[in-house]
Structure to design on (301 residues):
């Protein structure tokens, strides 16, 4: 049974969309990014005890985030969402704190370059650089790559790129509401549009155009649904039934399993896009964070 707090999630997401699409003026890209960060820091605030450190990861700006008492070895490299156009490490400190607590791990938030100024494959290049920098001090066996929405797709693209380059892949991966198909061919994008207050075909088309800038949307490094996924580490995929990108997750799980990847799939009734970030008040989100934490701990012993 869906919790009563679910209606609050829908309202928050509707408010988020309204803030990003004001009716009195055309917002600049800078305003959109500021609005996104403000919404995240207001609705997913970081606790005062969170330990934060800015670092240069081989030329890529990142933030270390960890709760007091967490070990210095187990690490989650986290890739934020925002459709490759908005979002930042600052906005995700609150969620990083929840992950750090649940997984007993430190979190490296990557501020990868954003489109349209930096189109594909800039985000992937920065993520590869940050991961390689991380592995100069942290074993891959104690590292998990995670991300939500576009960050979830970027996480899968990172894994395939690392394998192709001969790099050591991380111990596991977590993809929350991943966007892995820039052709937008998933049937749920239209069939579940009335259920999803946040994700729309029009919005994804606009952001895919900003990221690809004329490149083939089936390019595996942009749309990892079309990548060879053989050799990827165990992967946890979390998706809600009210998410218009539901079919991206279902097809990703099927494709990964067909390539021999161990996939744990969690499809949660009534949940919206990126619902785990609402962990502070939504029971299903709190459970999702706990499930991620257990998955990370189990895979990095």
């Amino acid at each position: 049974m869906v919790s009563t707090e679910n209606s609050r999630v829908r309202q928050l997401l509707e408010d988020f969309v309204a803030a990003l699409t004001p009716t009195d003026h055309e917002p600049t890209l800078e305003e959109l990014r500021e609005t996104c960060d403000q919404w995240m820091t207001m609705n997913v605030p970081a606790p005062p005890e969170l330990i934060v450190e800015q670092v240069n990861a081989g030329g890529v700006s990142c933030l270390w985030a960890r709760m007091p008492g967490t070990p210095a070895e187990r690490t989650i490299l986290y890739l934020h969402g925002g459709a490759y156009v908005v979002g930042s490490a600052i906005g995700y400190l609150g969620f990083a704190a929840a992950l750090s607590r649940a997984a007993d791990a430190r979190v490296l938030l990557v501020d990868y370059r954003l489109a349209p100024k930096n189109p594909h494959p800039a985000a992937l290049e920065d993520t590869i650089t940050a991961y390689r920098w991380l592995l100069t001090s942290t074993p891959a066996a104690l590292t998990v790559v995670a991300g939500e929405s576009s960050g979830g797709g970027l996480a899968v693209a990172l894994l395939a790129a690392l394998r192709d380059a001969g790099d050591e892949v991380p111990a596991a991966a977590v993809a929350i509401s991943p966007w892995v198909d820039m052709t937008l061919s998933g049937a749920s994008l239209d069939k579940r549009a009335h259920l999803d207050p946040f994700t729309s075909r029009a919005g994804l088309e606009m952001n895919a155009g900003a990221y690809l800038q004329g490149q083939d949307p089936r390019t595996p490094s942009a749309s990892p649904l079309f990548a060879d996924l053989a050799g990827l580490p165990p992967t946890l995929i979390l998706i809600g039934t009210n998410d218009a990108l539901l079919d991206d997750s279902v097809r990703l799980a099927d494709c990964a399993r067909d390539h021999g990847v161990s996939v744990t799939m969690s499809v949660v009734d009534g949940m919206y896009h990126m619902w785990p970030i609402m962990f502070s008040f939504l029971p299903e989100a709190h459970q999702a964070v706990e499930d991620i934490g257990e998955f990370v701990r189990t895979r990095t012993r």
Notes: The mean pLDDT is 97. The CA atoms of residues 36 and 87 lie 6 Å apart. The domain at 6-299 is CATH 3.40.50.1820 (Rossmann fold).
